[in-house]
UniProtKB/TrEMBL annotation:
Gene3D superfamilies: Glycerol uptake facilitator protein (1.20.1080.10). It comes from the Eukaryota. Pfam families: MIP (PF00230). This is Aquaporin. InterPro entries: Aquaporin-like, MIP. The keyword Transmembrane helix applies. Keywords: Membrane, Transmembrane, Transmembrane helix. GO terms for molecular function: channel activity. It is a multi-pass membrane protein. It is found in: Membrane. One of its GO terms (cellular component) is membrane. It comes from Anopheles christyi. The keyword Signal does not apply.
């Protein structure tokens, strides 16, 4: 479990911080950086999904 936590944090930080790196003639906007962080979180969640349906869905829990 500790290895998985480390790898998830590593990928989130490495790709997210990589999106903030500016080149000599280009600097990313705040929207592009936020979109990259969102894509990283969504991709990691999709990769680690077990494929089984769960019973603890948020929309049913709130209702």
């Amino acid at each position: 479990m500790l290895i998985a936590e480390f790898l998830g944090t590593f990928f989130l930080v490495a790709i997210g911080i990589g999106s903030t790196t500016g080149w000599t003639d280009y600097s990313p906007t705040l929207t592009q950086i936020a979109f990259t962080f969102g894509l990283v979180v969504a991709t990691l969640a999709q990769i680690t999904d077990s494929g089984r349906p769960t019973d603890d869905q948020s929309c049913r829990t709130l209702l």
